[in-house]
Amino acid sequence: MKIDRLLSIVILLLNRPLIQAKELADMFEVSVRTIYRDVDSINTAGIPVVTYQGAGGGIGLMEGYRLDRNVLSERELADIFGALQSVSSYVGEGHHLLLEKISSVIPPSKLAAFRSKTTQMIVDISPWGQMGPLEERLSLLKEALEEEVVVTFEYISSEGRVSQRTIEPYTLVLKGQSWYLYGFCTDRRDFRLFKLLRMKALVKEQQHYTRQDLPLKELPWTDGWTEPQNLQAITLRFAPEGRHLAEEYFDSEELHPEDNGGYTLTVRYAENDWLLGFLLSFGPVLEVLAPEHIRRRLGELARDVAAKYAFSLPQPDSPR
């Protein structure tokens, strides 16, 4: 991601008088052109980076410039460190260099306390097992974002429709447990959100685009669907044999024990296809008690599923 690369470059320049653009490009696995764009971004942020031409030249900070290491407190640095650790668990080795550089800013006498703070809470957002094709898509889209080039792919909508898309990528979004790409669709002439698992034949093209400013308060994954008025109260009952699932997916304080060893609870979710699939995933150990329309819809879906497998169910013996 660009922000941690910019911070890494600044820390490198603080510790080295000059560094070659090619060396930085190789270190961060980007193009020299991208490094010079990063230098412009750092200058814009108020840190004077100078490029020296000729033999023995390179990129360095203006002579006499020093970055106030007290601009961030140790607690703030620990929070940044923890956030980067969680991202590193999903996007590979690229962040480890930055994590080491942040640690190097901490005085040796305070390093033990700093490490204690950074291990008080660990967030690992990577899935169990291997990511497979999803990891390849993430890597390719990160490259397209860095190079500001368009991507093309086939997209399967939630209704099953397949379309060919050409997208100017802007943001990778991890929402819930799913990755999305937010970008400008050249066919629809508008911004769209795409689920990575629904992409096929993803290709990074050579065509460059000019990035626009994003209205951060109006992005589709920050809308009001989680506001109380948009959530549906749902009453659930877990059978005794489903206690372990109830305890794994719901807070223990939400669970109300029943005399038979099961649980009841009331939760609030946005009503959509994900909710129906989530409830069905518990199988026969879960019963939706209310509201009636969700209970009825689940019954319809369960009958449709049962009908698909009816031919393979053993038939009862014929009476003699």
Automatic annotation (TrEMBL):
<dbReference type="InterPro" id="IPR051534">
    <property type="entry name" value="CBASS_pafABC_assoc_protein"/>
</dbReference>
<dbReference type="InterPro" id="IPR036388">
    <property type="entry name" value="WH-like_DNA-bd_sf"/>
</dbReference>
<dbReference type="InterPro" id="IPR026881">
    <property type="entry name" value="WYL_dom"/>
</dbReference>
<dbReference type="InterPro" id="IPR036390">
    <property type="entry name" value="WH_DNA-bd_sf"/>
</dbReference>
<feature type="domain" description="HTH deoR-type">
    <location>
        <begin position="2"/>
        <end position="57"/>
    </location>
</feature>
<dbReference type="Pfam" id="PF25583">
    <property type="entry name" value="WCX"/>
</dbReference>
<keyword id="KW-0804">Transcription</keyword>
<protein>
    <submittedName>
        <fullName>YafY family transcriptional regulator</fullName>
    </submittedName>
</protein>
<dbReference type="InterPro" id="IPR057727">
    <property type="entry name" value="WCX_dom"/>
</dbReference>
<dbReference type="InterPro" id="IPR001034">
    <property type="entry name" value="DeoR_HTH"/>
</dbReference>
<keyword id="KW-0805">Transcription regulation</keyword>
<dbReference type="Pfam" id="PF08279">
    <property type="entry name" value="HTH_11"/>
</dbReference>
<dbReference type="InterPro" id="IPR013196">
    <property type="entry name" value="HTH_11"/>
</dbReference>
<dbReference type="InterPro" id="IPR028349">
    <property type="entry name" value="PafC-like"/>
</dbReference>
<dbReference type="Pfam" id="PF13280">
    <property type="entry name" value="WYL"/>
</dbReference>
